[in-house]
Amino acid sequence: MTQVNVHEAKTHLSSLLERVEAGEEILIARAGKPIARLVPLRAARTPRVLGLYAGQPFAIAPDFDELPADLQAAFEGQDG
With 0-12 CB in 10 A as exposed, 13-18 as middle and 19+ as buried, what is 29? Predict the structure, then answer.
């Protein structure tokens, strides 16, 4: 990761942004101490579509929320 000082970052911001767009990360420092990091933005995820499977049948097993006795005891803090 490349480190530049604040003055250099202000002077060469356009070229630094081009490097960031190409995937590079740039560390900005003041008096040698890192204070910020320029990183490329990730593309936003496409929003989920609500009701995508509306009207389609599905089934839930009758015992989907049952646990074995020893595991249930462990969740309840009991020695099983």
Answer: middle
Domains of the chain: which residue ranges? 2-38
pLDDT digits (tens, 9 = 90+) for 28-70: 999 999 999 999 988 778 888 899 889 999 899 999 989 999 9
Tokens of 69: 């006795």
How many CB atoms sit inside 10 A of residue 31's CB? Answer: 7
Q: In what order do the strands lie in the sheet with 33-38?
A: 2-5, 26-30, 33-38
Could you give the CA distance from residue 37 to residue 23 in angstroms, rounded to a whole number? 13
**Domain 2-38, architecture per CATH:** 3-Layer(aba) Sandwich (3.40)
Could you tell me where the DSSP H helices lie in 13-54? Answer: 13-21
Where does the pLDDT of residue 5 fall: very low under 50, low under 70, confident under 90, or very high at 90 and above? very high
